[in-house]
Design goal:
This protein has 598 residues and is an alpha+beta fold. It contains 19 helices and 18 strands. A hairpin with a 2-residue loop joins β17 and β18.
């Protein structure tokens, strides 16, 4: 068996299938286009579904690629020897051209030929579809393997759950597959141990899917107009096999990434099971996050959809980095190791390096501050807990106030043999959403993206900003015309006829930072709109308020009608910095600002 690097395997695979008449196509984006059934590209077939259904591909009927993929269903398993969230899938395709006989012959040659991988044929095992009411037993695939010289005792039939590749959604192209396994040399787990067993003796390295059916909306399996071949070889697992290592994390693909974590932490990879697990989680999650951020349809951290998954990966990596004593702000160095390993093939990583590092830095700064406070709140909660279950409302409070995903609370709880009421969390989340919809007018006035701690701090800073503008510009005519506040920054529109001078902007900053330095308590009172006006509170859109309003006061600085969340004290805000001042529309100026922590 030939030992080779991941880069060498990637190129050898492409070259082999080019020699068989295939055309190399680039990896599609990690973000599926026009496919609402999945958040990410989880298999090589996703970008090619139209062509599997009969459309003509511009590069012909024989294709080969290396597709970048993300699967997060097994995220809790990351840290063992084989699970990763990001992976590369080597794939060769026949779109209505060759079928089982040729596909199996190509696979056999690539695996066993001394010019290719040179694997001992006696170490390879195979599974085929056993058949059911929808499709017959795949004796054709079985016999094709035998014709290549495979011992029939190395082939087993398994049911649809093992040997059928279904559509990514409820409908679409599908069919039986034959899977190829490598005997790792580990002992059998029992008398029934065979290819397909999960004990670790047999490692799956390749999967040939024979797409000859289309699953309809009614659940029927109809023959496709053309018979297709879709194969997938996991690059990381195959390299681990070729290099004779017991884990995908011990291959050259991860060596530079692992080395960067070791240098930052001062810890030795492999010294203990727990340290090894933390190294692997950080390496996997930052590799995956780097590819998400650098993707040609790139995403950024957020609280929904793909952005939520990205945020979860980064924040999970931060948590384990803290446990390894990795200095704050170091994730960019690990990401640079990822770019160094993959940027030569995936040029988008090198091209988007600045964006990748910038987004990682911002997310790290956001979460590290919230995480430290959130963990203290979690410990306080555990200290008062009666029983072994954290209730859903408390779990939602950790999410809403400190940005803790439910999964993070569950992980922290599991480490203490505690449980979390997930259904109660879902109920609290739903109630929050309903309340938010009911208060749409307050969201319009506050312009808040969410109610996290970071956003609440920036919301309080926005009140101080408006007070500062009125004070510095000596004008009661300065009035809010709109705002948009996220966990990263505030945007504030206000009425004023001209551009602010640098001196005025500096004075505005100084006013806000003086209020922060005094660490004043932010007070909240409920009163009628008339009482609020009489008290000197300012506010917009009063016609949209109910009979009672909340008035938030920063004594000595600001008094304003508002319905959104705020910091408890101004000292929590950090340092206020104006990033930009510009025109928004006629007679309206716009300021963008951030809060930073020393």
């Amino acid at each position: 068996m030939r030992s080779m690097t991941s880069k060498e395997l990637r190129q050898l695979y492409l070259d082999f299938f080019v020699s068989k008449g295939h055309v190399v196509i680039p990896s599609a984006s990690l973000i599926p286009e026009n496919d609402p059934t999945v958040l990410f590209t989880t298999a090589g077939m996703h970008p090619l579904v139209p062509y599997l259904m009969g459309e003509t591909h511009p590069e012909g009927k024989r294709l080969v690629d290396v597709q970048k993929c993300v699967r997060t269903g097994d995220i809790d398993e990351v840290g063992d020897a084989s699970h990763c969230t990001f992976f590369e899938m080597l794939g060769n395709w026949s779109l209505g051209d060759y079928f089982k006989k040729e596909s199996i012959a190509y696979s056999w040659e690539f695996l066993t030929s001394p010019d290719c991988l040179g694997i001992d044929p006696n170490l390879l095992y195979f599974t085929c579809f056993e058949g059911d009411e929808n499709a017959p037993r795949d004796t054709v695939a079985h016999d094709c393997w035998v014709s290549q010289g495979v011992d029939p005792s190395h082939i087993v039939y398994l049911p649809k759950k093992n040997n059928w590749w279904g559509p990514a959604g409820m409908t679409g192209p599908c069919g039986p597959d034959t899977e190829i396994f490598y005997d790792t040399g580990k002992p059998v787990c029992g008398p029934d141990c065979k290819a397909g067993c999960d004990c670790g003796k047999y490692l799956e390295i390749w999967n040939n899917v024979f797409m000859e059916y289309n699953k309809t909306a009614e659940g029927a399996f109809e023959p496709l107009a053309q018979k297709n071949v879709d194969t997938g070889m996991g690059l990381d697992r195959t390299v681990a096999t070729l290099q004779g290592v017991g884990s995908v994390y011990d291959t050259d693909a991860f060596s530079g990434i692992i080395a960067s974590i070791a240098a930052l932490s001062g810890k030795q990879y492999g010294k203990s099971d727990e340290i090894t697990r933390m190294f692997r989680i950080i390496a996997d999650h930052i590799r995956c996050a780097t590819f998400m951020l650098g993707d040609q349809r790139g995403i950024t951290p957020s609280n929904v959809d793909q952005g939520y998954i990205l945020r979860r990966l980064i924040r999970r990596a931060i948590r384990f980095a803290m446990q390894l004593d990795i200095p704050d702000g170091s994730l960019t160095q690990i990401a640079d190791a990822v770019i160094a390993q993959y940027g030569g093939f995936y040029h988008e990583l090198a091209d988007n390096r600045e964006k990748i590092l910038d987004e990682l830095t911002k997310e790290e700064q956001r979460f590290e501050h919230a995480l430290k406070k959130g963990i203290r709140e979690f410990e306080r909660l555990v200290g008062t807990l009666e029983g072994d279950t954290i209730d859903g409302v408390s779990a939602f409070h950790l999410y809403d106030t400190f940005g803790f995903p439910l999964e993070l609370t569950q992980e922290l709880a599991a480490e203490r043999t505690l449980k979390v009421d997930a259904s109660g969390f879902d109920e609290a989340f739903k109630a929050h959403q309903e309340l938010s919809h009911a208060g749409a007018e307050q969201r319009f006035q506050g312009g808040l993206a969410d109610h996290t701690e970071e956003t609440a701090r920036l919301h309080t800073a926005t009140h101080l900003l408006q007070a500062a503008l009125r004070h510095v510009l000596n004008s009661d005519e300065v009035a809010q015309k709109g705002s948009n506040i996220t966990a990263e920054r505030l945007r504030f529109d206000f009425s004023f006829p001209r551009k602010l001078t640098p001196e005025e902007l500096a004075a505005v900053e100084a006013f806000v930072n003086e209020a922060i330095a005094q660490d004043v308590e932010v007070l909240c009172e409920e009163m009628t709109v008339d009482e609020a006006r009489e008290s000197g509170a300012i506010g917009l859109f009063e016609s949209k308020y109910g009979s009672k309003v909340k008035v938030y006061t920063v004594p000595g600085f600001s008094r304003e009608i508002c319905g959104g969340p705020h910091a408890a004290r101004t000292g929590e805000l950090g340092s206020f910095k104006i990033k930009k001042e510009e025109a928004s529309s006629a007679g309206v100026r716009r300021i963008k600002a951030v809060l930073t922590h020393a």
